[in-house]
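Q: Hi! New to this. If I give you a protein sequence and the SMILES for adenosine-5'-triphosphate, can you show me the bound structure?
A: Yes, paste them in.
Q: Okay, here:
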Amino acid sequence: MLGKKKKIHRKKGVNVNGTFIPTSVVRHSSPGHEMNTMSERLYIGIDLGTYQSTVMSSEGVMTTIETVVGKPKDPVARNFLGRDVVFGEDAIKHRLACNLFRPLEHGVAQDDEENLSAAKAFVTHLIENCDPEEYDEVLGVICSPSHISFTDKTNLVSILRGLVNGIMVVSEPFAVAFGLDQIAGSIVVDIGAGTTDIARIYGTFPTDDDQVTIEEAGDWLDHRLMNLINKKYAGAQLTQSMVRRWKEEGSYVGDDSHEFMVDLSVDGKKQNVDIGDLVRLACNELVPHIVEGVKNIVAGADPEYQSVLRNNIILAGGGSLIGGLADRVAQHLADIGDVTVWCAEDPVVRVADGALKLAGAMPDEMYTSIE
Ligand SMILES: Nc1ncnc2c1ncn2[C@@H]1O[C@H](COP(=O)(O)OP(=O)(O)OP(=O)(O)O)[C@@H](O)[C@H]1O
Ligand SMILES: [Mg+2]
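A: Thanks. Here is the predicted structure of the protein with adenosine-5'-triphosphate bound:
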């Protein structure tokens, strides 16, 4: 049971000879039953993303927050903000008064004390949105970025200890396929910010051999676009968040350029310029990387399954919102035979949604107790 306050009206129990015994006591007094379904249980699905994270609960909570933590730079900033730590949008808004941490970003040392404490604060904040203290038991299915290695999984457990009672860690593509009811045979391409994860799914948990991870994803695209703009408009003053915003508004692939006007500051002077051709170029460059990854995943599959897999390629993650992407990927895959490529709806929450569905569907023995 979580060591936090519980609401009185939710208190559950049984009457034994006129004495009220709370369910939680009953649970702990029954030997061999670490996780009793009699008690009030909350399931949560968590997608810890490089750029943004989502939590969904079996009670209908759904929250997406940018994976960024701000800690006030000094006592003045602390006073002004009125808090020791701020998250997501708040952290971005007050970035000049804060030290910012992106604790799950690619390349961040996971054993760095400050990042670890920022990650813990962030995950705590995310889970608190689901009011875990109101439940006897909280079971979570977690998807974390694929660059988080085995030692970092130990960190993940230490981060979640005290917040949830049991966890199961699954890969992002598997969660996507499970949530969409496509585990019988599919290839999931999860185009996130830090990485693109491509996995073949055929009815069971994928192994490491069933998945490839490539670095070409949203952040890579931002940098490509930034370079292209800098080349064309020497002296342009750019930040990744400006470029990301433009990309999200105007992203597309194809053979013809569309106009896409933006305000650019060049050596301090405002200019209104068309970057439509550059957005197209950068987005087009992502396609061969995805195509190569998918081809490898198909080629490594049992030959009798290859046709099924080729005909159910699912694009998810924020990067799948690039206009025209599914068609272009399909065109570039045409040389391996008939293919079907489609985009998942609401791609950013697909991972957390699948994780939540898994959480409810899996038997207790699949969870690792972290009490
Ligand atoms: N309309 C859009 N066009 C292109 N890219 C987009 C669009 N909307 C969002 N993105 C990009 O999608 C990425 C975020 O996607 P997502 O939330 O799936 O990533 P993440 O889970 O945080 O990252 P990762 O899975 O790598 O840890 C960002 O790079 C964002 O800029
Ligand atoms: Mg992701």
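A: The chain is about 35% helix and 25% strand. Let me know if you'd like me to explain how to read the tokens.
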